[in-house]
Each structure stands twice: as C-alpha cells, then as structure tokens.
Amino acid sequence: QEAYALYLQARSLHYRGTHADNQQGIRYLERALELDPTYAPAWFGLADALVYDYGMSGGSYQDVHARARAAAETAVRLDPKLSDAHLAMGRVLGELEWNWAAADVEFKRTLELDPNNVLALWCASGYALIGDRLDEALQLIQAAAARDAVGWGISQGTGDVQFRRGRLPEAESAYRKAIELSPTSALIHFWLGVVLLARGEPAAALAAMEEETDEGFRLYGLALAFGTLGRLSDADRALAALETKYADGMAVNIASVYADRKQLDRAFAWLDRAFRQRDGQLPVIKAYRGIENL
Questions:
Q1: What are phi and psi of 77, to 5 degrees?
Q2: What is the rounded CA–CA span in Å between residue 259 and residue 286?
Q3: Neighbours of 243 (CB within 10 A)
Q4: What is the pTM of this model?
Q5: If you average pLDDT over residues 51-65, what whole number do you get?
Q6: Dihedral of CA 238/244/246/249: which sign?
Q7: How far apart are CA 266 and CA 193, in angstroms?
Q8: Do 191 and 204 form a contact (C-beta atoms < 8 A)?
Q9: What local confidence, expressed as pLDDT, does residue 51 receive?
Q10: What angle is formed at CA 42 by the lines to CA 23 and CA 2, rounded to 5 degrees?
C-alpha cells in the first residue's frame, strides 16, 4: 500500500511538469522500489520520469541512460503485459537511443495492450512529429484528447502538432488552454512565445517568454524575442547567460539562437556539441526557431 501511494504521489508530481517536481517524484519512486522491488508500475514511472527530465533539462547521458534502460527492462520483465512497461521501453529506445524503428514496435505493443493509454498516445504523437508524419501526429493527439479533456500535456501536445502543421491560430489556442490548466508547468509559455513570434507579434512573444517558469527556456526565449525586437544588447545578455549556465544541457537551444541570427558557423558548432552530448532536444529540432536558415 505504501509503495502504491508513493507511486501515485510521484506521478502527480511528474505531471506538474517542472524539473524540481519531477526530481522529487523520482525520489518517491526510489523509495517505493525500496519497499517493493517487484512493483512494475514504479519501475515504469522511474524510467518515464528519467527520460522526460533528460529531454527537458539534460544531465549525464551515460547515467540517465543506464538507469532508465534498467528500469524499463525491469518493468517489462516483471509484467510483460503492462502497457506502461512497453511505453517506458519505447521512450528509452526513442528519446535516449534514437532507435526509432524499435521504439515504434514498443509503442505499437503499448497500444495493443491498452488502446486508451493517454500517455502512450501523446508520446506516439510526438514520435510521429519527429518522423514528419504530421497527419498521424494529429490523429494520435486527438485520440489522446478524446480520452483526457483536462490534462495540460494534451493541450500542449496539440499545440506542438498544430505548430508543426503551420496552423498558428490553432497552436496558440492550444498553448493558451494548457496555460489555463497548469500555469506553472515548464515550457508552455515558451512555446506560446514561439508561436507569437511566428505570427509577427514579438512584443506579445516577449511577454510570454518572461512568464516561462523554466530558467533555461526563459533565457532561450528572451534571446529570441529581444533579438526579433532589435534589442540586441538585451538579447546578447540572455544568450550569454544561457551559454554560461546551460551549455551542457541546452546546446540545441543555443544553436537555434545563432541560426535565427544567421550566424551559421556558430550554430553548426553548437549542433556538433549537441550531437556529442546526445542532447535530448535534438530529435525535435525541426520545431525550433531559425533552423530553417540552416
């Protein structure tokens, strides 16, 4: 019972969508597994939280990969018919190992075991975006939304899909809905700001970026918005802070700023670094501003 309670508390923290909450959730899961090492859902939760946190905040790839891979494998071994266990393995294969074909197999198995697995539908939608399967991505996120009308992540995922499809009004509406549902969750204000930049509203974009709760993405967003507004000294300060504090976890974002400025040699240098570091954001780079300049 106590392990189950810790698992539920950990997932609640995870879905708040901030680095600090997710780290606390990971500690809860570790405690749950100390109490019951055979509890497969907690192994899934640990793998899922580790992968999510790495994609958002970076860290040591070797450490995260080893821990997440072991947790996913343990979940599958303990309960091979647990849909979430295959979801965890799919995320490890795709987001950490960049083995898209193997990840697709695991996601297919996940949804065979539970067609109503909302998190799996949301993740599969994101993977379809990585593969430029935009219609499939929309169908999957709509299926997730039909099963979960209150999850802010589903609204954010809808915004992600509509943004990649070039449907900027729909993307803005979805991100604003996500903010209504969870105003403190990370990255939503940032992505709203990106949409507003794309709509030619840099002042509104700056206001959105200033509300971003994740410091790294706030600095990234400020560098983009200030640059678009022509406030170059402010943009330079934000970029310098981003490079100083987040070079090991946000190389893709730094590359994006340089690409937006059309400083292409610097952009490619940072992309090389992102690849060496196995930056968790590299697979979704097509959504980032300035990349079209490359």
A1: -65, -40
A2: 12
A3: 17
A4: 0.91
A5: 89
A6: positive
A7: 24
A8: no
A9: 94
A10: 95
Q: Which helix (H) or strand (E) holds 286?
A: none
**Is the separation of the CB atoms in 110 and 83 below 8 Å?**
yes
List, in sequence order, the alpha helices (H) in 92-231.
100-113, 118-130, 134-147, 152-164, 168-181, 188-198, 202-210, 215-229
CA angle 25, 29, 31 (to 5 degrees): 115
Q: Which two tokens stand for residue 164?
A: 């990649």
Percentage of the chain exceeding pLDDT 70:
100
Q: Is 141 exposed, middle or buried (0-12, 13-18, 19+ CB in 10 A)?
A: buried
Give the number of other CB atoms < 10 A from CB of residue 284.
16
Contact 271, 259 (CB under 8 A): no
pLDDT of 5 higher than 90:
yes
State pLDDT tens for residues 217-240.
999 999 999 999 999 999 999 999
Contact predicate 210/226, CB 8 Å: no
Percent helix, percent strand, percent coil in the chain, to nearest 5: 80, 0, 20
Contact criterion met (CB below 8 Å) for 121 and 147:
yes
Residue 207 token pair: 């206001």
- The Cα-based distances of 139 to 90, 128, 135 in angstroms read 19, 10, 6
The pLDDT, as a whole number, for residue 56 is 81
Q: Identify which of 125, 127, 63, 46 has the alpha carbon closest to the alpha carbon of residue 93.
A: 127
Backbone angles phi, psi at 248, to 5 degrees: -85, -10
Task: Give burial (CB, 10 Å; 0-12/13-18/19+) of 269.
Answer: middle
Which is it for the CA torsion 258, 263, 267, 270, positive or negative?
negative
Q: Containing H/E element for 294?
A: none
Residue of 132, 122, 46 whose CA lies nearest to 89: 46
Q: Is the dihedral of CA 79, 80, 85, 88 positive or negative?
A: positive
